[in-house]
Structures are given as structure tokens and as C-alpha cells.
Amino acid sequence: MAYCDGCGAPLEDCDGTCRGELDPPRFCRECGRKLDVQVTPTGYRAGCRRHPPVAPTGEPKL
Amino acid sequence: MTTRAMLAAAGAALIDEQRDLGEAELRGLAALPVDSVPALASLAHEVRLARCGPEVEIEGILSAKTGGCPEDCHFCSQSSKFESVVRPTPYLNIREIVKAAQETAELGASEFCIVMALRGPDDRVIDNVIEATAAVRRETGLNVAASLGILDRDQAKRLAEGGVHRYNHNLETARSFFPRIVTTHTWEERFDTCALVREVGMELCCGALLGMGESDDQRIELLLQLRDVTPAEVPLNFLNPRPGTPLGARPLVEPIEALRWIALFRLALPEVILRYAGGREVTLRELQALGMTAGINALIVGNYLTTLGRRPEQDIQMLADLKMPIGVLSKVI
Ligand code: SF4
Ligand SMILES: [Zn+2]
Ligand SMILES: [Zn+2]
């Protein structure tokens, strides 16, 4: 099963509006657990304690 | 009085007489019709140029301890009192802090602020921040600011002696509205820390957060209270409602109202370093450049504490397009 990285709900239950363009991911796509997220001035790191690190997905737009 | 007469009187007071506007004058300007906001912004820009000059100060900030805060500020995703998506993460080490400062320096910034989600620091935190400050100064030459919550006098003195040149502690909102937003500490406790920061010789950075449900009168009240703490810098935040917090469903401040209040902050605090801070991207969207000609003279570039900013190149380009030089703004206190 896949999960929404914005709200942690099963992917089919979220319309994708939960995560703003300037929000880093907060939940693991593989297991839905909360991620450890460290925001830095020019990027962020997001990692699940059970799964490999999440790569930043593209540049914030706006 | 007509709008033109009101603006002319405010301009004469602030530029010719170098006199602060009184409460009634500020209330009058706050009540101008929405189609007068561009004229109000233009006056604020003129005042900023006359009283501060054309330079814009750039800063980067870093959350060096995220989440798990025992306080209950209703806007904050880092409070442990709410079911937030932010998972607490441990203190960053000095190497990680220096690396973030290097990222900041590469953006052309002169200022780097180390922020921790705490009610207040303990001695170990103070030791670590002093050590980090020295390392950042040595490796990057940036001015170092810190934001660690409520301080006692000894802690404030140690930070000042340790090279922290500016300390951030926000009043956030008017005294009369504060109990609706925070119940775990008082507005007076914040005010006292602000006073201590000045007493030990650090510059005070004391910010506001608009859009939490406060009235226009309470925004004016806040401006007068900010004057009382004599900040060198005022970071101006707009609420970016965070899921899971008590303010998570509040609407954003309307862009034109955000511009009105940027202008009013400049007119009420003519010589302060007025910094664009959190929420500007979602609030102002494509009107962000207009804030720069409404009284703003400093920016946080890059990302915030738990949310991202727009790309730093966009801000640097915006300043180049406006022909506003990047500089260091520091007040002699
Ligand atoms: S003290 Fe700071 S980190 Fe803690 S809840 Fe309030 S705003 Fe958030
Ligand atoms: Zn979702
Ligand atoms: Zn996982």
C-alpha cells in the first residue's frame, strides 16, 4: 500500500491538497509513518526510521 | 481629512519633523479605503528610504532543535500540545549548524539565526550556542543571531559576551490578544526577555505574526507595544495555517491587507529593520515585490524552520530588478 507524504493517509483517500507547494514531505510513502524532517536554508532531509531516505522532490515553485 | 491630506501630514511628521506618529494618526491610516493602499505603501517606501536608506539585509535561519516544545502557541506546528505533522528531531551538532551557515553565506546573506523550539534554554544549550556562534563566525564571517525562548539575566549576558549580536524574541501579537494565542506563558514574560536582551547589549529582534484573528485596533496596540521594546529588527510574519494546530483552519491574510500592514509597520517604526519573514509566499504570492516598496528592508531568504521558502535566486533577482543593494543594517545601540 502507498501513503500520502503530506498527511499519511492511504494514497487513495487523499486528494493531494494536504501538502502545500512549500511544505516538505511529512509521512513515509511506503509505510505512512511520520518522517524525521530537517529543513535547512537551502534544502531539507526527510527520513523514515524504517525505510531509506526520501530524496527531495524538485524545487519549490511559486 | 482627505486621504491625500492624511498622507501628506504623516509624511511631513516622519520625514521633515522626524516625529513619530501618534495612535490616532495610525488609526486613521489603518482605516483608509482599500484603494488608498498603494498610496499608503508609497509613503511608507519614501519614509524607509529617508530614514533607513536603500540597503536590504539578507538573513538565513536554521531550526537547530525542531518540535517537541512544551509551550502551546496556537499557531505553531512545533508545540507538543497539538497533533502536528512535525516530528521532534534532536539538537543539531556544531558541524551541521556551520554547514547551514555556509549555505546561508553563499546566498549573499550577512546574518544567520540559530533557532530552537524551547520554552527557554538550559546551561548546556547556552554552552552549545556560544560554541556554535564562534564556529560560524570563524568559518563564515556571518553575524550570528539566536532565538532560544525566554532568558534569565545570566543567560542573556553569556550570549552577549559569547558573540551573539542579535537575539530574537517575538511579542507576536498585542498584549490584549495574547491570552487567546498562548496560555503556557504570558505576554509579560516575553516583554521581560525583550528588555533583558537590550539591557545586556544585544540587538533585539522582536517580531509579529498577523492573521490570527486579532482586530485592526489590536494591530495598532501591538505597534505601540513594539515601540516600547525598541527593537533593532522586526520580522513580520503572516499566519500560514498549520494542520493540527488550533489556528489550522484560519484564512490567509488578504494580499492587499498584508501590504497595508507592511506600510503601517514602517510608518509606526520608521527606523527599524523590517524583515519579510514566514508566510509571505503563500500570503502575497505574485505581489511579493510590492512589499519591498511598501516599507520592507530585509528578507529571510531560503527556507524557514519547518516549511520551505521560494528559491533564493528569485529573491536575489527581485532585489536586482528593484535596484536595491544588499547590505548590512545594524543599529548602534
Ligand atoms: S515557544 Fe516557540 S517553538 Fe514553542 S510552541 Fe511557542 S512558537 Fe512554537
Ligand atoms: Zn494527503
Ligand atoms: Zn517508512
Measured distance between first and last alpha carbons of chain B: 38 Å
- Tally the structural domains of chain A: 1
Give the names of the bound compounds: iron/sulfur cluster, zinc ion
Task: Give average pLDDT of chain B, whole number.
Answer: 96
Q: Which class of secondary structure composition applies to the elements of chain A?
A: mainly beta
User: Assembly type of the shown chains?
Assistant: heterodimer
Q: Over all CA atoms, what is the radius of gyration of chain A?
A: 11 Å
Using only CA atoms, what is the Rg of chain B? 19 Å
CATH architectural name of chain B: Alpha-Beta Barrel
Largest sheet of chain B, in brief, is: 9 strands, parallel
Largest interface: A-B, 24 and 32 residues
Helix and strand run of chain A:
EE
Uncertain stretches of 5 or more adjacent residues of chain A: 58-62
CATH topology of chain B: TIM Barrel
Euclidean distance between termini CA atoms of chain A: 31 Å
The parts of chain B where pLDDT drops under 50 for at least 5 residues are none
Name of the CATH first level of chain B: Alpha Beta
Counting DSSP H or I runs of 4 or more residues, the number of helices of chain B is 12
Please, could you describe this protein's structure?
The complex is a heterodimer of chains A (62) and B (333). With 62 residues, chain A is mostly beta strands. Chain A is built from no helices and 2 strands. Chain A has one domain. Chain A has a two-stranded antiparallel ribbon. Chain B is built from 12 helices and 9 strands. Chain B has a 9-stranded parallel sheet, covered by helices on one side. In chain B, helix 3 packs parallel to helix 9. The chains are: A mainly beta (62), B alpha/beta (333). At the A-B interface, strand 1 of A face strand 1 and helix 4 of B. Bound molecules: iron/sulfur cluster and zinc ion (2 copies). One zinc ion (ZN) binds next to loops of chain A.
